[in-house]
Each structure stands twice: as structure tokens, then as C-alpha cells.
Design goal:
The structure holds two protein chains of two kinds.
Chain A (H helix, E strand, L loop, with lengths): L3 E6 L4 E6 L5 E9 L5 H5 L7 E5 L3 E2 L4 E2 L12 E3 L2 E2 L8 E3 L1 H8 L3 E3 L3 H11 L2 E6 L5 H10 L9 H4 L5 E3 L19 E7 L4 H9 L2 E7 L4 H6 L4 E4 L10 H12 L4 E4 L1 H9 L4 E17 L5 E12 L8 E7 L5 E6 L4 E4 L14 H11 L3 H10 L1
Parallel strand pairs in A: 3-4, 4-7, 5-8, 7-10, 13-14, 13-15, 15-16, 16-21
Antiparallel strand pairs in A: 1-2, 1-11, 2-10, 3-11, 6-9, 12-14, 17-18, 17-19, 19-20, 20-21
Helix pairs in contact in A: 8-9
Chain B lengths: L9 E5 L11 H15 L3 E5 L15 E3 L5 H11 L3 E3 L4 H13 L2 H5 L2 E2 L4 H8 L1 H10 L7 E4 L5 H8 L3 E5 L9 E3 L2 H14 L5 E5 L5 E9 L5 E9 L12 E3 L6 H18 L4 E9 L6 E7 L4 H10 L3 H9 L26 E7 L23 E7 L2 H11 L18 H12 L5 H10 L4 H8 L3 H19 L4 H9 L4 H8 L3 H10 L5 E4 L13 E5 L14 E5 L10 H16 L3 E6 L14 E4 L4 H11 L3 E3 L5 H12 L9 H8 L1 H11 L6 E4 L2 H11 L3 E5 L9 E3 L2 H11 L7 E5 L5 E10 L3 E9 L12 E3 L6 H17 L3 E11 L2 E8 L6 H8 L3 H9 L4 H4 L15 E7 L20 E7 L2 H11 L9 E5 L5 H13 L3 E5 H9 L5 E3 L9 H7 L2 E6 L5 H16 L2 E3 L2 H14 L9 H6 L8
Parallel strand pairs in B: 1-2, 1-4, 2-3, 4-5, 18-21, 19-20, 19-22, 20-21, 34-35, 34-37, 35-36, 37-38
Antiparallel strand pairs in B: 6-9, 7-8, 7-9, 10-11, 10-13, 11-12, 12-15, 13-14, 15-16, 17-18, 23-26, 24-25, 24-26, 27-28, 27-30, 28-29, 29-32, 30-31, 32-33
The chains are: A alpha/beta, B alpha/beta.
Chain lengths: 386, 1086
Amino acid sequence: MKTPAWLALEDGTVFRGFSCGAQGENAGELVFNTSMTGYQEVLTDPSYKGQLVAMTYPQIGNYGITQEDDESSGTALSGFVVRELCRTPSNWRCIEPLDLFLRRRGIPAIEGIDTRSLTILLRKKGALRAVLSTFPSSERALVRKAKAWPSLSGKDLASQTSCREPYAWTEGLPQGLDGLQAPPARRKRRVLVLDFGVKRGILRCLVSAGCEVLVMPAKTDARALIEKKPDGVLLSNGPGDPEPLHYAIETVRGLLDARIPLFGICLGHQLLGLALGAKTYKLGFGHHGANHPVMETATGKIDITSQNHGFCVDERTLPEDVRATHINLHDRTCEGLAHAHLPAFSVQYHPEACAGPRDARALFLRFVSMMDSGNPAAARAKEIAG
Amino acid sequence: MSPRRNDIKKILVLGSGPIVIGQACEFDYSGTQALKALKAEGYDVVLVNSNPATIMTDPALADRTYLEPLTPDCVEQILERERPQAILPTLGGQTALNLAVSLAERGTLKRLGVELLGADLEVIRRAEDRELFKKTMKDIGLAVPNSLVVTELGQVREAGARLGFPVVVRPSFTLGGNGGGIAHDPRELLARVAAAFDASPSRKVLLEESVLGWKEYELEVMRDRKDNFVVVCSIENIDPMGVHTGDSVTVAPAQTLTDREYQAMREDARRAVSAVGVETGGCNVQFAVEPKTGRRVVIEINPRVSRSSALASKATGFPIAKLAAKLAVGYTLDEVPNDVTKKSCACFEPAVDYVVTKVPRFAFEKFYAKEEDAALLGPSMKSVGEVLALGRTFKESLQKALRSLEAGRDGFQSPVMKSPLSASDRELLIRKISSPCADRLFWMKAALENGIPVQEAAERSGMDAWFLHQMRELIDFEQRLIRQKPSPKILREAKILGFSDRALARLWGKTEDAIRKMRRRSGLRPSFKLVDTCAAEFEAATPYYYSTYHGDNEVRLRRNRRKVAILGSGPNRIGQGIEFDYSCVHASEALREAGFETVMINCNPETVSTDYDVSDRLYFEPLTFEDVTEILHLEKPLGTMVQFGGQTPLNLTLPLHRAGERILGTHPSFIDAAEDRRRFGALIKRLGIPAPAHGIAKSEREALAIARRVGFPVMVRPSYVLGGRAMEVASDEEALRDYLVRRKHAGHPSLLVDRFLSDAAEADVDAVCDGEDVFIGGVMEHIEEAGIHSGDSACTLPPHSLTPSQIERMLDYTRRLARGLRVVGLLNVQFAVKDDAVYVLEANPRASRTVPFLSKATGIPLAKLAALSMVGRKLKTMLPKPLRGQQIPKLPYAATKEVIFPFNRFPGVDPTLGPEMRSTGEVMGLGPDFARSFAKSQAAAGTPLPVSGAVFISVRDEDKAALVPIAATLGRLGFELHATRGTQSHLARHGVRTSLVRKLGEGRPNPVDLLRQGGVSLIVNTPSSGRARSDGYNIRRTALELGIACVTNINDCRAVVHGISLQKGSKPEVLSLQEYHALLPYSVPR
């Protein structure tokens, strides 16, 4: 017999469907994701901390869960919403069906609701606070709980999704960077990843780009990082609002001062923006999908990118020596920035993809050449550390 | 600065020619989009396409439209005349691409300074030459199946041994995989390679490692000159590798690939397209994936817009062809605005939030008497049409697609089998699901229902278990449904799973009407969702909808009393194809110009009518009573037009009328009067119009009695048929008995028996009536005599042999019929003339197959006039002055329509014409007189009239007298004549010398030897009965294989010889349709 489940929104809308994951009741910010594949990557992406995710593609779970496609060891999101969940998956790499995975990981999930009507609602009203519950209760009570949930804004979620202890990462991509090759070097570049909830895809790309990767907890300060004599630091993706992460912004400033080559991705991009003096703001319903066209303004070249963010760097607040390098062709928002003199650049989207197109993976090589160029920045970093 | 290329002023666009299997109206859709895009950019646009049934050849769409043969000679002539700076060859299918290659290779393009847009010669070669393609792929590190190229038969044995069997045979440069096949042993391999050499213009054949049974995928992609790349759509085939993708049931987007695998495939596609060098436009990349390991190989790239592009455009709302045209003239993806959201640009990848299923439609019953004879599906395409359905789940879209097919199924249905299954039935099921046949899903359902496990079914069929599990879910639900009493709850579940009212009625043993009433009482109505390319992420402006039983309805209606619904024609099939789509599109265009809002309903992804900018709202839905009434209930148009989409909407007329829907135009009861043989008989009697003696038989006994009364030969057929299905001429009682025995199990309640007028001439008349006046577009005289289906007949305008008095009687009868049937809209009448008597054979108060041809020839758009008549406009205000009153257009030139047959796709079939329609397409030839227009039509049909060589003649006794002057003319023209004994002696008696060819089995040389020797450029062979029949069959089949023009009836022969005599010595002139129209004594309405 199917177990009923409810999805109650702060605006009073309640969707009735059936439970297809763990039993439970969770609140969070409800967003939609338009990727047609990659639900496993979405489920294991730490950046979804504090959120309930609705997939717009109606049939989810078709290929089950695989051994290799987790983006982290956990499942950070609070709940999962689908039109129909497939319990009879088929794929040669499949190790278990999705519903089993959700139950095992304790993720409540609802199916059998019209996710398209839900998406239109979120498009019009912006991301809403919501409660997903498999426990019978009055619908009004659920709406009240949704309203009572505190907003994502102003919360430090990254400290919860970061690693506690530093660790080394050595696994690369199974097929490398699709034919891209890092320039030869005498030794591997040492990259420290400042972890706000990093996706394994990023770590794998770095390894395949010829880097030695050490993952550091979010609250590691600049001095401690510099002491490790890195060739560069990658500011990782992560959940929620960048503004309350004062410690991280401080760290980035320290790294900038030391002219350590920096590459920011997603939350890391926002943190670099904030450290350089720009402001961030919250988007209506964010960008969550794998089909966002982004143009590099200098070349006119367009990449189809994977995205997952609700906050954005305000281009108008960038200081003079910082250039907005990429724009989103859907809504013209800022998708990348670079410092005119310092070795630091960042993108709002996910060049590692996972899930999504791999058009932008060459950015990892750009990071490598920035580290290799032996510019004064790298030299000075060694000086300070010494 | 505009990126548009200003160095180009004039562009010549190549169309795809007649509809053939593998190349259908999808190229009208893409060509029409391209022409509109190029015109909008301000280019001078010249079009060459020999197919008059297309929208793209409407004179308003290009500056000059050449309805001329798509041959290198002819296009060269047009290039010399027009001197364009560029040719766009990537939107006219393989025909256009091959034509571009030959024009480049013979130096024409260089000589005239013409550039190829979209794909240049190098790109085409890298994509189309299999060897070069493989090398290109290997160079960038992509995997391809192992393969070897052979250019002579001597190499075949060793190649087979090296690759291991089965081996796939793929000729270069052929259309729809024609000439390809799978060889299971060395002997078969040798035979297949020999056949492939004949099919391939380059005599190069690729032998390939078999990837049979692998998963098959296609990515529809676009790339621009800045290397921007997007995937518009991924397509997964349910039928695994080994079945041509055109014959496969396919699903979009891909369902069973993880993101990692999908993105790796996408990356491969990006690199492959870039290596081939497709710079500007759409193309597709095909992959095979080994199901157990995921090993992925690239199969092919089409460097052009294809059938799959049309499918992808309809599946996502992304206008590929329009974009391809823009990219070809210099734009990049980001410089073209997004049509759907009207914000941002076209450089993005559609995200869909529904599942799309395409199901092919076959016509094997037209070619093989017994189902068992029908060939299995393979790498050479056999289907004649397709349907597409959108649903929120695969289950829903599959059910919708299957009921869209109009193949007598109400959804995912299985054959009725005895339960429990006998051992032989089980064996039958296993055999059916293991071999790729046209009905495989039908049998698959039976197999799953009868306890064959999904895993076993997947292994035997090569279909991914995911699809079979989904089918299994439908079956489980169905079994639960049967056990339960109808209730609103289970009804709702059933509707969400895509069950039609009719299917539920069948399962619950109730009437469809009862189910509908129950459903409506429970408030269960479909919601219509928008196709918006972005999964609702942005607000969209596309007026393109599909139905589902879940969630909110998204159609926003403005109250409008001037709104009309038009029913389309459903899947292409033999007898109902592009001609009807043409009329539907015209109706919509005319009504919109007149300020009406139009609503189009259709389920055929290949068509122009399912382009969302043809109508104010497009509903991509099955054309069943249930689906149509739900749309009408929502839209509440002032009425519905059923005349334009052929038999499909006509069959819905009475049910819609009874359900209270208003049918615009001719009243449903009069439509019925024309369809119902009994009522029609009474009507023409009352109108004093002669018809062949006839009767309606309910039993064998009655049929024989009628036949004796009206006299043999008789024409017999089941009532209510399309395209002459199961229609035959019985020359005597024995033949009739034979027919009755063969039809015994077909289950048609009544048979029509008509006196057959042998050797009669036939003609088609198309007219429009506004309730008062009748406008007759023209009398089209058939070239073949009566007994050959009108859809298979070539015809000419003006008539080439009818007398003025005969024509006058036809016009008179047509007017009487129009008034008698109270026609408002279109009327088609078929006539036969025997011994100067004119008989009416049938009258159809709807658009006919000849409407586009007639409209092109006369410049008068009949379907537009008809649509406007149906909303109250009067002919006297719409027609050009000289045509008001009782005038019919008088042409100062001649037009001939010739038809195209798919016999080369169906091994073992006799290519003789008869009352059962078997042609798929048509071409038009224009010229100053009949003979020259006929010669043009033959060249356009791919069998140009020979000017020299040998002629082989063998005719039945009845034709011998008529043959004498024809043979004499051929002899005078310098042809060497060969004839079989009877024909030879008859000709000799009348002073025509021929050399003798022995009949098959009577020594040598026999006719087949003669043909194989070469040198024969024309065959005249009229079929007779009995033993000679199989001789004739062998001759015609050989001719087909060798591509020798073969005339199978004496009237054609006369026309051919006349054409030859005029062609000798002079090059035919090319002229655009606009120039022809300028010669008319009236001005052509725009």
C-alpha cells in the first residue's frame, strides 16, 4: 500500500502525493532543478544543504544508483520531490534502486505530485520555504511549520558541510579531462581545496589536471594554508548564503594579499567577490540545472554549464580592478570574475559538471597555467611561508 | 554590426523531391522554416524542388520556385540562369546533399562561383564516406565499430572472415540505409555486397563489425562558426541496433543513461562534429552502447537536418531548421533570439519535463498478401510514416502514440491469446519478440502478460529492461483494473497512465460513451501543458500544447468567437500523406489572414502543420474522438474543419456531429451520403448522373449475384477503405471466388461490387463550392487507364485526350454533385470515360490528393478558397475576375503529375500497378505542352526518358494492336527493338522489325539476360495473367534492380514515346513557377 506524503509551502499551497523515500518530516527552502539526468549527483551535492529539491524531469530513478557517481559521502539535502520514482531501474552500473538509497540515507521524498505546476509556482513566487512530511498531520499545521522555518539567508551552512580534518584526494576522472592535457611539469602542483562542501567532481578534475590535492576544513585561516606552501588554492562550492561566512572572506583576503593563485567555484566565487569588496544578493529561484548558457565576454565563446546557486555576485559592485568575465545568457547575471593584477579568478557555475555538460572543464587547466606561470605571486607566497 | 553575410545576395535552396520511404515531409517542414528565415533576412531566395505537394513550393515562400527535376543537369541549368552566390544543401535531405556533391564534383560550383552553405564538400565527404569518417573519428580518439571497405566482390570472402559474422553491409551515400543489410554467412554476404554496389553511387561498400542488439542513441546537435555547440535533444531507441532508426520506436529524452554516460556521449558528439567540421547548422550523431559494459561507439553523423531533427524540433519546441538557416548565413547561436521565451538567445539546451515517444507506421499489408511474407525490419528503412506523442511519463506517451497510429488499437494492446498459453503459442510469442517485426510491441505485451519475465524478454528482444518494466507496470495496472469495479479513483489512475476511454470500455466491457460519461461525472478532464523548451523555468510564448491527466491546465484563452479548429491527417501512410497536410496548412493560413484564430490538432511530427507558428494554437494530440472532443470542449471554437486532413478527420465527422460539435462546411449527413455507397447510388440516380452498375453485398452469395447482374469484369472492395486497400479487379467468377476466400477472415461486413470499365480513361476533378457557386479548378486526365488506383496514376492538366464534350459533361456532373451534396468547401470527383460515355466513379466532399498539384498548376489555392467558403466568404468575391461565373482556369502550358513507388524497399514484390494504391509520393513536370511536361515529370521521378539505346517489348494480347504505331515510332527514333515471340510476330505482320528474345525457361537469351547485358534503356511490359505473369514479374523486378525505365501499361507507353520524340535534339527549358503563373490569363492571388 502506498504511504501518503505532503508537501506544504509557506504560501499555503499543499501538494498531496506518496512517500517514496524515508519516513520523516523536514523543512527547508524548496527549489527546482531542471537537469534531466544526474539525480544521484544532485542528492549527494553538499550545496543543497538546507534545501528541498524538486526535479522537473518527471521520471527519476531510471538508472538507479551507481557505485561511482556520489559527489560526497553524504546526502545534504532535506527532501526530494519527484513526479514519478522508478523502482525498477536498468543500467549496467546500477547497484541499488533509488527508493532504497533514499530510505537508507534517511531522505524523505514525495512522488505523484505535478512537479510542473509546482515549478511554475516557484518561478512566479521565487524559492519558498516548505515542509515535506510523511506523517499524517493537518495541512494547516504543515503550512505553519513551513512559515516558521528560518530563511537560508544569513545562515552559515558551509561549516556544517565542510570536512572536519584535512585529507588528501588522489582519484582522478575515469577518462581524464576528455582529451585535454595539462602542460608537463617537473612535479605535481600542490592545490589546497578550501572545503565548504566540495563536490568530488572538482577534486577529480584537479587530480586529472595534474594536481596534488589536499582538502582543508572551511575554517582554516590564510596563514595555515600558506604554511602548506600551496601552488594554488581552490575555493570550493558550498551551500547557502556567502555573506555570513566572515571567517572565509577573511581567509580569502589573506590569500589575495599573499598573491596565492586562487580559483573559486560557485560559493567560492561569491566569497572571492565579497573578499574583493563586491556585494552578493539572493536570486528569485536561483539557477539549478545543467543547461545554462554562459558566455566568456573576452572571447564570445559560450559554454553550456551546470549550475546550482541561489545567491549571486552583484556585478555593479565590483571594484575597478576586478572584471566580470562571464555572463549568463538567460538572465545576464554575473557568472565569473577575475582580478586585473592578482592571480585570482572564479566562476559561478560548475566547470567540473557532475551533473551536466563538460564544456568548461578547461578552466582547471587555466588554473594550472596560472599556477605554472611562475608569476611574482607564487614567488611571494613561498617567501611568506618560508 | 550585423553578423549576416552581406557578400551573398541570392541563395538557392535544394528541396528533397518526392516523398519516398526514408525521406518524407519532414523536409518540407525544415525547408519551409529555412525559406521563411532566409526571406526574413532579406535574401533573394531560389528554390528547386520537384514535389508539388509541399508547402515550401508555394510561390509566395521563395522569390523563384522551380518545380523542376532535382538532377545535376537541371540544377546546373537553373544555376546558370539564376547565378546565385550560394547553395544551401543541408535542408533537403540526402537528395539535396548528394546533388550538391555531384555539382561540386563536376566543377559546376567552381565554374559559376557558387559556395556551399552549411556543409562544404569536404565536410560532406568526411561525414558520408564511411572510411574517411572512421578515420576522422579514430584520429580524435573516438571508438567506432571495426570495419573494412570493399570495392570489388573479390575482397568479400576475406573481409567476412576477419570481421566475424554477422556482418553489417553499408553502402556509401545512400538514403535511409537503402541497399544495406545484415549478412549472417559468407554466401549472404556476397549477395548483399553485390546489391549494395548497385545502390551506392560510389560503388564503395563498408563491412562492419555487428553491433546488433546494442543500445542505440542519437543526439540532435547544433554548432555554429564560433564552435558553440548545443545538444537539442537526446533520443533513445527502444528497438536496439539492427533496426533502422526510422523504423524504431524511439523515446526522447534518453531514459537509461546516467549523467556520466550521457555527458561522455555528449562530449564525444561535440568532438565528432567539430572534427567532421560541420560549422553551421544542425546535424545528428548516432551512437551504439554495449548493454552489459557500456562500451560506446560512434556509428554515423548526418551533416544536415534530418528526420530526427524534425522529431527533435517537435519534441522540444526548438526550431532546428530555422536556426540552421540563420547559422548558414553567418549568425552564431547567441545572435539569434530565443523563439520560445522571447528573451535571451537560442544558444541553450532544451530541458524537457515530459516524455516523447515516436512510433513508426508501416504499410506491409500493401505489398505482401500474407503477414508472414512481410520482411523483418533491418537497416533499410521500411516505414512510411510516424506518430509522436507527448506525455508526462513514458507510459502515458506510449499509450497516446499507439492510439495515434490509427492502426486499430486503442493504446498499448495485445493480440487476444488463449489462456493458459499452449506450447506453440508460447513459441510464437518468443519468436515474435525476438525478431524485429512491425508489430513487436503488440506481441511484447502478450509475452509479458503471459508470464514471460522481463529479463528474458529483454534478452531476447534486445530492448532495455527499463522499457519493459514500464510496460509491465501498465499490464499490472490493467489486470488490477479488470478485477475492480469502475470507480472515480481507479478511473483517475487509469487516465494518468494514458488509458483511453475506448481501452477502458474494452477492458470493462462497457461502451466508450459510458466511460466518457462516468469520467466527466467525476470531473476528470485532461490538463494541457505547454511545450516550452525549459521545463517551466521561464515564461514561454509558444502556443504548443499536449494533454495529460495531472495538474493545472496551462492554456490561456482569450474569448474569441472567430475561432476555428482544423483536424490534421495523422501519420503519413500510403493513400494519406503530405498532400493533406498541405491543405490543412493552407486552411490555417487563409483563416488567419482573414482574422480568424486557428487551432490545429495533429500527431505527425514530420509535418508543417505541427510547426507551432502555423496556427494560433497547436495541440500535439492523437486524432481520436476522445482526444479531439476534449480539446474542442476547452477551446469552444465556432466550428471544426474536417475536410482537409483526408480520411482521418472525415471518419470523426459523424461522431463529432452526434456529440454536438459543429462541423464547418458540407453538412455531416451529406459527407456521409458521399461515403455511404447506398446513399450515394440513390443520389446520383436522382441527379441523373451515370455510374457503372454496382451493388453492395453482405455475403459471398450476394457478391456473386451482383457480379453476374452487372457483368464481369468487376471491381470488388470492402466498403470504407483508404487508398484502395484490398481493392481488386476480378475478371471472372473464378477470380471473384478466389478474392472472397482470401478476404474471408478480414472481417469487413460488406463488399462493394462495381462493374469494371476496362480500358476506360479516368479523370479527377477538384472543385470548391461556397453553397451557391461552384469553382472547378481543372480536369486532370489520368495517363493510366481505369483499374489503376487514382493515387498511383500519373495525370495531366489540361487533359491530353478527352474531347471537349466529355470535359463539358464532367464539369456539369461536378456542379450537379456539388449542389446535390450541398457542398460547402472542397469536392473531388473521379470519372471514367468509356466509349464516349462519362461515368462518375466516386465523389469525395473533402480535400483530395490532387489539390496541391492543381493549386500549383493553376495558381489558385483551392484549399484556401474552401476554408474561407466554410466561414461564409463567397467565391465571387475571392476569385480573380476572369474566373468568376463558370470559368475554369485555362492554362497556356501543361502540367503532369507523376507518382513514385517504394518497390525497391520491398523485396519480392511485383511492381505492377493495380487498384491498390502503393505509391508514396509525387513529382510535377511543367512544360509548354503535354509531351514536354510528361518528359519533365519522368526526369523528376528519377526515370528520365531515354534518347537512345535498346527497347525491350513484351505486351499482352489486348495491347498488341495499340502497340504497332508506338513501336514503329520507336524504331524511327533509332531505338533497337527486342520483343518476345508473340509480340514480335504481331509487329512483324505490321511491318515493324524486332529481334527475338526467348521467354524465361525457353532458352537464351531470355529477357533477364538481355537486361543484365546492359544497353536496354526502356522496357515495355504489360502484365497478363497465368504463366506469363511470373515472366513479367521477373522482368519488372530486374528492371527495378537495374534502374531501367519500365512501362507497364500501353497508355503510359504512348505518352513516353511522344515525350521521347519531342526530347530528341533539344534541351528542355527550365522555368520558375512564378514565370509560368505570369503567363496565365488572370492574376494569381497571393
